[in-house]
Amino acid sequence: MLWVEQPAGTGFSQGLSYETSEEEVAKNFLGFMRNFEDTFSFRNKNIYISGESYAGMYVPYIADAMFSAKDKTYFNVQGTMIYDPSINSDTVLAGMQVVPYVNAFENLFNLNDTYMSSLRTQHTECGYADFLSKHFVYPPRSRGPMPSPPKTRNAKCGTIWSDIQQAVTRVNPCFNIYDIATTCPVLWDVLGFPGSFEYLPKGASIYFDRADVQKAINAPNVKWAECNDIALQKDTSLYSGLDGGPLTRVIDQSQRTIIAHGNFDFILLANGTLMSIQNMTWGGSRGFQQKPKNDFFVPYHNEREKGSLAASGVMGVTHTERKLTWVEVFLSGHMVPQYQPSAAYRQMEFLLGRIASLEEVSAFTTQPGVAQPVLGKGAGTYAGNGSVPSRELFGEGEDRRVRLVTDRGFL
C-alpha cells in the first residue's frame, strides 16, 4: 500500500506546485508513478486508487489519465474508492440539501423551533424544496441532465449552510463540521485534524511535525500539515461528477467503483453526493434506478483493545448498479476510515474483490473463523439470545432478527 502526498507542497512533498488544473495534477502524478515503479521494480501490478474529500477530484482525474495512457505495465487500474468526495458544486453537495439534513438530525443540532421554522421557509422560497422533489428521485425522471440549481436574487439562499453553522456553534461551541455528533470539550487529534477550527492543547504536538518522527521515517525537516493552501491554489477543471466527466468514464472502465459517505458529515452531505450520482450517466443509463436501501454489514471481529475498538453489525446502507457501489456509513463523520475503521476495512475488502458485496454477511477475510450473525425475515424468526432488530435504531426497514452462530451451533 502506497500513501502519496500530492500535489507538490502537500505534507512532506518537496517543491512548488505550479498546477492550475486536475489534468496537470494527473499528468505529474503519472510521471511520479512511472519513476516509483521503475525505481522499486513495482511494474505489472493491479492498481486501486482511494482518497477522501477533495480526492473526489484527484482520484477520478488520475484514474482517467491512467486509463487514457493505455499502459497496463504501469497503470493497470482495477478500481477506485472515494470517501465523502468533492465531485460537484457546494450548492449541490451542501446548500440545497442542508435544511432536510438538519431536519433529519434535529436533535444533534438542537436549534430552537423559531429558527427551524425559518429554515424550512427559506428552503422553500429559495426553490430548493421544489427542485429536490422533481429531480432527486429514483429512477431519474428524464434521460437528459438535470437543470442547473435554482438561482435566486435572495443572497441568503447562498448562505444557508454557513448561517446554520454559526447558529449551531452558539448552541454547541465545540460543533465540528466534520462530525455533527461532536460536543464539548474541544477534542484534538495527533494529526491536527479534523475540526471546525485549529486546536492544539498546551504541551501537545502534531505527530508528523515531531523531529524524532521525521528522523525515524527519513522525512525532511519541515512543518507538516494534513491540509494546506500551498498546492493547487487555483483549480480550473470541471467537477469530476458532472455528466460525461472523468468519474463516469472511470466507472465504465473499472472493475468496481465505490463512493462512500459518512452520515454525520456536515461539510459535504450524503444526499448531495447521491443527487450528483442521479445526474450522471454510466453503463448506458442515468443514475441509480432504485433508491439505496440494502444493509451494509460490518463483520464481528476479535479485537477488544480499548485503543482500537471498532463497530460491527449493520452499519449503513449500500447499493450497487452497473459497477458503481454507494455506501452510506452510519455514525461516521467526514473521514470514514478514522471514524469507522472496521467499515472502511470491509469496503477495502470489497474494492479488492475479496468479497462479493458489501451486503454480504461473512467474516473478515483475514479472520475467517469469527462467528457472524444469520439474518432472517419476519417478526420472531430468530427470537431468543442474540436476537436484535437490525434497523430498529434508525426507524426504517424490514422487521428482521439476527442470531449469532458458530460451526457448532448457537453462541
From TrEMBL:
User: What broad class of enzyme is this?
Assistant: hydrolase
Q: Does the keyword Glycoprotein apply?
A: yes
What InterPro entries does the database record attribute to this sequence? AB_hydrolase_fold, Peptidase_S10, Ser_caboxypep_his_AS, Ser_caboxypep_ser_AS
- Write one Pfam family the protein is assigned to: Peptidase_S10
Which GO molecular function annotations are given, in alphabetical order?
Answer: serine-type carboxypeptidase activity
- Tell me, what is an example of a GO biological process annotation in this record? proteolysis
Q: Fetch the Gene3D superfamilies from UniProt.
A: alpha/beta hydrolase (3.40.50.1820)
Q: Which UniProt keywords apply?
A: Carboxypeptidase, Glycoprotein, Hydrolase, Protease
Q: What is its EC number?
A: 3.4.16.-
**Family, as annotated:** Belongs to the peptidase S10 family.
Q: PANTHER family annotated for this entry? A: CARBOXYPEPTIDASE, SERINE PROTEASE FAMILY S10 SERINE CARBOXYPEPTIDASE
- What name has this protein been given in UniProt? Carboxypeptidase
Native organism is Tothia fuscella
